[in-house]
């Protein structure tokens, strides 16, 4: 049996002329591709076969594979090639791949990186991840089943991330007697579908991962097929030369200041090229200057192109920092703070419209919120469905609002300046990937109005420092009571204060909001903005809101300058708050008369590191208020 | 930056120096020492750090030192205490938010799914099911207090890429990668080098001079050599390409059981 399998066999040139071989290898191009298929399409087997038949498997690995095949394989006494690629112990036990794995192999003509992604649950998240760096997709179809819903799903996803070259691998031809009619029917159906969704190039290959037919070697069983084998096609398909013709774009990653005489801007060029003397514009500020020097690994370069990591020195002392983009002066990218984008949701917790997330695009990370999706894409049919939110593996189109204008290009033009991540502020998890379509409004003409009387001046005139004292806790915890006492004490001491109370705000500014999760998020966002304006006016602002979600409290914290935000956790256990039930709300909630009631039918996320915690079971309201005032004034006594 | 003095570390350090030139990389080098590395490795370590003008932090697990843990008497405990525990101690001691490592995805199956930016819990554990998706060239580097990240910039390099780059950029590597006559002992089919007088001979063993080199470098009593005449870089690459066994075969650590690397990683091995 072993004789049928061949381990790694080196190129003949290696033995005869190693230097010539190395020179060839150094100039080989790299093709990154993704394989897509559902669980039973034989994807892992095909990749294993590709690795094995291109002789990328070493003798010791092959021996381990043979032993594993007998132990846990699904092919009886034969080698189970899927075991070559199913890496993690958990997967081996379940017999499924559960994540994206990358495999490497090289032939005499080219180097390859294969992204292998699972075909069932999590397929959207993992496929989009694997496809985001791929030049080409191999879409597997089981010859017995033909084009399925999954095939269309995979094709939609591949197109979505911008892949335009597809190999349709019609697998398991051995199980349909290598019948050309079966193959032709599948291909015709797929081609019609693919061109309708904008996939320009489809190469169809009949093959068998199990027997190896048309994977690396042509299949004698299919003399009617005269096209390339899978490997031959992968070796010769053109690789996009890159974005060297595009206008120059350098997202600044790091400002290099090794000594007082040198100031350079380091990053990887994502479009075009740059040479000393080129006129450039810093976006979003719009300042123009020229390039004085281009340094590549510290050495002077006459020119650098897309893909190279460089440090650029500019002729003038212009303001430029991480997140800015240095661009060709004549054709700079746009900056905007609102766009329409396609969002792929990747987290178990659904999108909360209006919640503050972090958006990372290029080298810039800013705060951002999303509106409820305009629609969600049915990846099986391509239909647009209505939805209030985005769940795990949903793909939707939504409006994105960034806190400040960011430099971008539409994703179709530039994946580097058009693709972004959304990050949860509380857990730091990557919750979504986004692709920018078009800006909603042009931000270039909207500037922050600079005001002569600064926030510091406002506060100084009042003889104080602005503060936001943010009281959070369950309904009936005592937030308003304590906040009210604190305000009275501060007022009596001549401080300029203002108390924003939850119930009062909901009767005015926020009377259009209910108590759903999305409305609660918006409620806190608005209160945060109002508190920020009042703090800018130099006031000591006190807010008394349940504010149950950590993400929103973190959002408000990020809006207020460092050191001015004080989170005060009025910590009353649920049983205690419910026992007091001053407003009779708990009783109603328990009877089901109030929906989404915090502590009863909606969660309260307690602060992890509040500036102050008041345990109301041990400390009375008067004493707590005194302690807060002391803390606030104590901070001032040495600051002022 | 985790600096183990091996060829991958050499490439990683070289890339960092290039990336930050004309400045210096704004982070220190950390060597988690076991006291059992080859003498040539210590020499290159100190030279490379000095040349880069970077601070070199060396951590040795004080418990392992006190208990005299060594590869001859303590088997896999040696690796666990000096390397796994030592690394955790060092990361805790300095409180780094991020540590660069030279691991490559092509080295071992469980590494094929490793992210370029990999989040570790406060106890340095790795949960392969809770990894962040990585798209395009965008990396989420945010962590909560106590968590840290491992960064693997060489993830997509293959062994041949590493050698090719060493050749192209003329990067200095430990001379042990090149064949030379060295004192050796053959034990259970593995050729070990007698690097210093701490080597514990078994009965009947005497050092024999053989022309050997190493494909990977670790603690000298745990690292198997190959007999070779390859004394130049292109000879070494030629030999590497002509051999038909995988690179990590020389390391005892991977052989415990299939899937053992994944287990070690969950426990905090780099």
Describe this entry's structure for a reader.
The complex is a heterodimer of chains A (640) and B (270). Chain A has 640 residues and is α+β, with helices and mostly antiparallel strands. Helices cover 29% and strands 26% of the residues of chain A. Chain A folds into four domains: 235 residues, P-loop containing nucleotide triphosphate hydrolases (Rossmann fold), CATH 3.40.50; 80 residues, Elongation Factor Tu (Ef-tu), domain 3 (Beta Barrel), CATH 2.40.30; 106 residues, Beta Barrel (Elongation Factor Tu (Ef-tu), domain 3), CATH 2.40.30.10; 185 residues, Rossmann fold (3-Layer(aba) Sandwich), CATH 3.40.50. Chain A contains 19 helices and 29 strands. Chain B folds into two domains: 162 residues, 3-Layer(aba) Sandwich (Rossmann fold), CATH 3.40.50; 84 residues, no CATH class. Helices cover 32% and strands 15% of the residues of chain B. A four-stranded antiparallel beta sheet of chain B has the order 7-6-8-9, with no helix packed on it. Chain B has a three-stranded mixed beta sheet with strand order 3-5-4, with no helix packed on it. Chain B has a two-stranded parallel sheet with strand order 1-2. The two termini of chain B are 12 Å apart. The chains are: A alpha+beta (640), B alpha/beta (270). At the A-B interface, α2, α4, α6, β2 and α7 of A face α1, α6 and α7 of B.
Rg over CA atoms of chain A: 31 Å
Number of strands of chain A: 29
Task: Point out poorly predicted stretches of chain B.
Answer: 248-259
Quickly name the level 1 CATH class of the largest domain in chain B.
Alpha Beta
Low-confidence stretches of chain A: 443-448, 636-640
Chain pair sharing the greatest interface: A-B, 70 and 50 residues
Strand order of the largest sheet of chain B: 7-6-8-9
Instruction: Specify the number of helices of chain B.
Output: 8
Query: How far is it from the N-terminal to the C-terminal residue of chain A, by CA?
Result: 85 Å
CATH C-level of the largest domain in chain A:
Alpha Beta
Order of helices and strands of chain B: HEHEHHHEEEHEEEEHH
- In CATH, the architecture of the largest domain in chain B is 3-Layer(aba) Sandwich
- What is the helical fraction of chain B, as a range of percent? 25-40%
């Amino acid at each position: 049996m072993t004789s049928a399998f061949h381990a790694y066999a080196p190129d003949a040139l290696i033995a005869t002329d190693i230097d010539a071989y190395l020179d060839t290898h150094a100039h080989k191009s790299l093709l990154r591709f993704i394989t897509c298929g559902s669980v039973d399409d034989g994807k892992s087997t095909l990749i294993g076969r590709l690795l094995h038949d291109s002789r990328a498997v070493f003798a010791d690995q092959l021996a381990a594979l043979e032993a594993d095949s007998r132990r846990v394989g699904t092919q009886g006494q034969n080698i189970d090639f899927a075991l070559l690629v199913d890496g993690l112990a958990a997967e081996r036990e379940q017999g499924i791949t559960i994540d994206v794995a990358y495999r490497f192999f090289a032939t005499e003509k080219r180097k390859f990186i294969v992204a292998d992604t699972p075909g069932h649950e999590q397929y959207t998240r993992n496929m989009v991840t694997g496809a985001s760096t791929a030049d080409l997709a191999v879409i597997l179809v089981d010859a017995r089943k033909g084009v399925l819903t999954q095939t269309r799903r995979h094709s939609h996803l591949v197109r979505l991330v911008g892949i335009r070259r597809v190999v349709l691998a019609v697998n398991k031809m051995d199980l349909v007697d290598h019948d050309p009619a079966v193959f032709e029917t599948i291909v015709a159906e797929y081609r019609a579908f693919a061109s309708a969704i904008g996939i320009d190039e489809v190469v169809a290959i009949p093959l068998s991962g199990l027997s190896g037919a048309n994977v690396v070697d042509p299949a004698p069983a299919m003399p009617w097929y005269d096209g390339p084998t899978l490997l031959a096609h992968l070796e010769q398909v053109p690789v996009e030369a890159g974005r060297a013709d595009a206008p120059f774009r350098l997202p600044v990653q790091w400002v290099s200041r090794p000594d007082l005489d040198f100031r350079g801007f380091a990053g990887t060029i994502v479009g075009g090229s740059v040479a000393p003397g080129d006129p450039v514009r810093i976006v979003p500020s719009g300042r123009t200057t020229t390039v004085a020097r281009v340094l590549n690994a510290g050495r002077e370069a006459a020119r650098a192109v897309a893909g190279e990591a460089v440090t650029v020195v500019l002729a003038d002392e212009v303001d430029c920092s991480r997140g800015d983009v240095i661009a060709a002066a004549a054709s700079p990218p746009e900056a905007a703070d609102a766009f329409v984008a396609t969002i792929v949701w990747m987290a178990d917790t659904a999108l909360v419209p209006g919640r503050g997330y972090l958006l990372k695009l290029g080298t810039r990370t800013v705060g951002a919120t999303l509106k409820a999706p305009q629609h969600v894409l049915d990846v099986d049919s391509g239909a647009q469905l209505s939805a209030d939110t985005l769940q795990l593996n949903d793909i939707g189109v939504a409006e994105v609002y960034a806190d400040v204008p960011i430099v971008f290009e539409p994703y179709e033009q530039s994946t580097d300046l058009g693709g972004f991540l959304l990050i949860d502020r509380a857990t730091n998890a990557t919750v979504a990937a986004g692709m920018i379509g078009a800006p909603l409004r042009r931000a270039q003409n909207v500037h922050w109005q600079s005001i002569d009387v600064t926030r510091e001046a406002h506060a100084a005139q009042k003889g104080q420092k602005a503060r936001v004292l943010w009281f959070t806790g369950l309904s009936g915890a005592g937030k308003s009571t304590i906040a009210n006492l604190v305000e009275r004490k501060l007022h009596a001491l001549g401080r300029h204060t203002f108390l924003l109370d939850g119930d009062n705000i909901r009767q005015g500014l926020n009377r259009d909001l209910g108590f759903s999760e999305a409305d609660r998020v918006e409620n806190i966002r608005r209160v945060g903005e109002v508190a920020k304006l009042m703090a800018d006016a130099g006031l000591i602002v006190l807010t008394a809101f349940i504010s149950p979600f950590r993400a929103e409290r973190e959002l408000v914290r990020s809006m207020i300058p460092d050191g001015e935000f004080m989170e005060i956790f009025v910590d009353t256990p649920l049983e205690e708050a419910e026992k007091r039930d001053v407003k009779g709300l708990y009783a109603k909630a328990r009877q089901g008369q109030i929906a989404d009631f915090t502590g009863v039918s909606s969660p309260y996320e307690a602060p992890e590191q509040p500036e102050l915690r008041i345990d109301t079971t041990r400390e009375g309201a008067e004493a707590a208020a005194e302690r807060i005032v002391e803390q606030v004034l104590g901070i001032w006594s040495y600051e002022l | 930056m985790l600096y183990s003095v091996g060829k991958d570390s050499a490439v990683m350090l070289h890339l960092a120096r290039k990336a930050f030139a004309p400045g210096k990389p704004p982070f220190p080098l950390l060597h988690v020492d076991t006291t059992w590395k080859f003498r040539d490795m210590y020499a290159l370590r100190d030279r490379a750090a000095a040349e880069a003008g970077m601070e070199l932090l060396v951590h040795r697990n004080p418990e392992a030192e006190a208990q005299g843990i060594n590869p001859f008497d303590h088997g896999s405990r040696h690796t666990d205490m000096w390397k796994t525990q030592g690394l955790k101690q060092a990361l805790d001691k300095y409180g780094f938010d991020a540590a660069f490592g030279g691991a490559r995805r092509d080295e071992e199956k469980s590494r094929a799914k490793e992210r370029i930016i990999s989040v570790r819990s406060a106890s340095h554990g790795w949960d392969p099911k809770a990894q962040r998706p990585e798209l395009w060239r965008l990396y989420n580097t945010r962590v909560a207090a106590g968590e840290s990240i491992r960064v693997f910039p060489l993830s997509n390099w293959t062994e041949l890429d590493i050698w090719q780059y060493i050749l192209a950029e003329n990067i200095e590597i430990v001379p042990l990668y090149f064949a030379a006559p060295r004192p050796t002992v053959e034990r259970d089919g593995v050729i070990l080098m007698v690097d210093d007088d701490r080597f514990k001979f078994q009965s009947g063993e005497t050092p024999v001079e053989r022309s050997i080199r190493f494909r990977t470098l670790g603690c000298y009593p745990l690292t198997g050599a190959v007999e070779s005449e390859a004394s130049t870089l292109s000879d070494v690459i030629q030999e590497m390409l002509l051999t038909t066994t995988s690179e990590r075969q020389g390391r005892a650590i991977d052989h415990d059981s299939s899937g053992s690397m994944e287990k070690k990683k969950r426990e905090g091995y780099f």
